[in-house]
Amino acid sequence: MMVNSTLSYFILGGYMDVGNLRYLCFMLTALLYISIVFVNILLIVIICLNRSLHEPMYLLLCSLFVNELYGSTGLFPFLLVQILSDIHTVSVPFCFLQIFSLYTYANIELCNLAVMSYDRYLAICYPLQYNTCMTFNKVFLFIIVVWFYSFVRCIINISLNIQLTLCGNTINSLYCHNYLVVKLACSDTKVNNIYGLFGVVLSIVVPLLPILFSYMKILKVCFSGSKQTRQRAVSTCTPHLVSLLNFSCGAFFEILQTRLDMTGVPEVLRVILSLYVSVLQPLLNPFMYGLQMSKIRNTCKHLLSGKLLTGHRDLMQSPFMAYPIPFPLECPKDQYWDPSS
């Protein structure tokens, strides 16, 4: 029996023997990581330096891009080292550190998307009250709460797992997973299981509530309006919905992999599914929002053409100008500005 005090490393059993192809895999993985770092840092710098982007929506996007960097850094350097290694092992402290990094990344991602959905709800349904409801300070407080809550929740989770007595050290994965480490335990895991279920409710169900509420309200406004109104609303919410659905699918694949017997699934497919959310999400978000949002897109063009970030005063300061479409939508009459007043 191996006790935690004597267990010094875990063996990662998810790697295949690809021979000299490891160098190609290393180059592709390094290229992906460099691309993720470049596009996310580029958009963070653009939002921070351009005064016209110092608005609630872009502050939420900045938090999202910082989180992509955080999650990618918790995975990609580790993968690069493992790809070139003949023996795929990881020390116990680093394994728990990686679990903490990846799990906080996932929590922050979903909670950040939940706040963004509420932001879209206010911007679409209450355009005149938007600047009052979503002030800079309120959004900043939302972001602090999201990050603090995610860190505290994962610290409690890791603290419970460190106390477990482990009877094995082989993890059938490319990187460390909380559930797979708990499966190695031969001591009582009742407390871990209870907290795990409680954590699922906090991490998934609670963020989904504002998302469902927001989109139910948005749909209600859309279907009570004209066809043009519906088309504009769909265009407005497309980046957020694509990001949310992609992350949900990736998280679902990852949960299936860790909890079901995947021995019948081809190894290459298992590798792709295990890296799906960690690779595609950090690349998808910058390109979706960078290409869809006119103010960010125009600023990128100015930056890449060598011009200074002047703030683009010619762009309207409406919460809807994040998207290249006219607004506001058809909302209750008392929400509109009366030009005769």
Description:
Strands 2-1-3 form a 3-stranded mixed beta sheet. It has helices at residues 21-49, 56-73, 76-83, 92-125, 130-133, 136-162, 178-183, 190-223, 227-259, 267-292, 294-304; strands spanning 9-12, 89-91, 170-171. With 341 residues, the protein is an all-alpha fold. The protein starts with 8 loop residues before the first strand and ends in a 37-residue tail after the last helix. The longest helix has 34 residues, at 92-125. The radius of gyration is 23 Å and the shape is globular.
Topology:
Blueprint lengths: L8 E4 L8 H29 L6 H18 L2 H8 L5 E3 H34 L4 H4 L2 H27 L7 E2 L6 H6 L6 H34 L3 H33 L7 H26 L1 H11 L37
Parallel strand pairs: 1-3
Antiparallel strand pairs: 1-2
What keywords describe this structure?
341 residues; mainly alpha; 11 helices; 67% helix; globular
Structure, briefly:
The protein is mostly helical. The protein is built from eleven helices and three strands, in the order βαααβαααβααααα. The termini are far apart.
Largest sheet: 3 strands, mixed
Binned, the helix content reads 55-70%
CA-based shape: globular
The unreliable regions are: 308-341
Order of helices and strands: EHHHEHHHEHHHHH
Q: What is the tally of helical segments? A: 11
Strand order of the largest sheet: 2-1-3
Q: What is the radius of gyration computed over CA atoms, rounded to a whole number of angstroms?
A: 23 Å
Instruction: Give the helix/strand class.
Output: mainly alpha
- Mean of all residue-level pLDDT scores: 80
Strand content: under 5%
Secondary structure tally: strands:
3
Question: What is the terminal separation in angstroms?
Answer: 79 Å
